Amino acid sequence: xxxxxxxxxxxxxxxxxxxxxxxxxxxxxxxxxxxxxxxxxxxxxxxxxxxxxxxxxxxxxxxxxxxxxxxxxxxxxxxxxxxxxxxxxxxxxxxxxxxxxxxxxxxxxxxxxxxxxxxxxxxxxxxxxxxxxxxxxxxxxxxxxxxxxxxxxxxxxxxxxxxxxxxxxxxxxxxxxxxxxxxxxxxxxxxxxxxxxxxxxxxxxxxxxxxxxxxxxxxxxxxxxxxxxxxxxxxxxxxxxxxxxxxxxxxxxxxxxxxxxxxxxxxxxxxxxxxxxxxxxxxxxxxxxxxxxxxxxxxxxxxxxxxxxxxxxxxxxxxxxxxxxxxxxxxxxxx
Length: 335
Prior knowledge:
- This protein is α/β, with parallel strands linked by helices.
- The chain is built from 10 helices and 16 strands.
- It folds into 2 domains: about 1-110, 2-Layer Sandwich (Copper Amine Oxidase, Chain A, domain 1); about 125-330, Aminopeptidase.
């Protein structure tokens, strides 16, 4: 019975809407639907937290918060306390908020009604991709090269995954440069069930920016988060796993924000090559800003990297548990 209800919820999430009164986004021209109508059809109550700025949707097991003010980025949303950047900004006209159909199906859908693996499919092999390496140092902050800490981080995550019973494949185990296309090829050859790319961030001229970001592949028909509304919107092979990519990124951001002590900068979308070419659910973690004094101290501290690695392992475990399709995970997916 519970499975039938969940299937019905997902069907409604993905169902087409009447769009006669909905405005259109001028650049990408996605379909938009009234947020209030969607909320009522899914038994959410609607409340303004701040009139004409932030609106709350409260359901039985989920709480959604949307920013409708374009000046402060109307892509920002929160799903059960975790920040998620929408593929398209909400539109707000004449006192009504509108959300894109792409976000209903590709952002909210996978999180609120998670996809599950077929019976007998078990997540066992994880490919860890330590970014940069060799002649490619990544970001450099003082004497610290990103490539070094990416690898140290990956090694710590590997140790904890092995202890948890997973099989782990590394795209690099030493300070060597691995071509981007070879990283996903290693994962495919090993039959990896998940691909996790590990990086750290930096803004040399701005030490105030801090926090973690988890990226998954941009869905077809949408622009990447940092593209400025320009660039490629075509379907690529990684889009085969759009639903699971988003669910994986969400669970990882949720775990990282809860367990690592870093600021939550949200789940975001990008067309990084390793995400485009991955044939399994894939994410890229920007695990903090080396250029920020507080984040940097944690990144450079081996003891704190253990805590960060635990957050990654917990995120993988949460995703595995939910996609296994147990009744408990389906009932509590948004909590």
